[in-house]
Fold:
Amino acid sequence: MILVAALRPATISVDDEPSDREVVARVRSGNADAFRIIVRRHYPACLRYAVRMLGNRQDGEEATQDALVRAYRFLGSWDGKRPLEAWLFGILVNCCRTSGARRMRRDRPLVSYDSSGAAMSTDYVADDGDEIQVALMKLPPLLREALLLKFVDDRTYEEIAESTGTRVSALKMRVKRARAQLEALLR
Structure:
């Protein structure tokens, strides 16, 4: 009976769950396994953002994993002045930007023509056929980024500004433009 109980995952009540600050302190003191708590806690939100931002699950998973590896590597640079989640999303936003730019360079043909000789569009289209995702992928990356952080991840403009390094006024304008373009695309 004791062996069976030892094999079950530990159930921790919400009250027993350590804060991000406590987990970071554990990792910094040499308990690398404690980082699993951060991954378990933040991976779903990071993945949701990255998939929507990059347009497919494979690229989203890659960017999320890259962001978590970077967060682990540079955990010593987190100063605790802002929430760990905001710091982590700042890393994730940069990983998504890098991944998106890398994909555009990789996927961009030197010259692309259809059979009639007219230049073809190189717009990326989401694989899953999701109408909203297809429309999102047609938005410029910075507009898509602001829209997703604001409405999908439900962040305040101040939190988005911390993550992206963009002024709040510029973010508000990006969100406004993104909404207008998205509405036009969905009509």
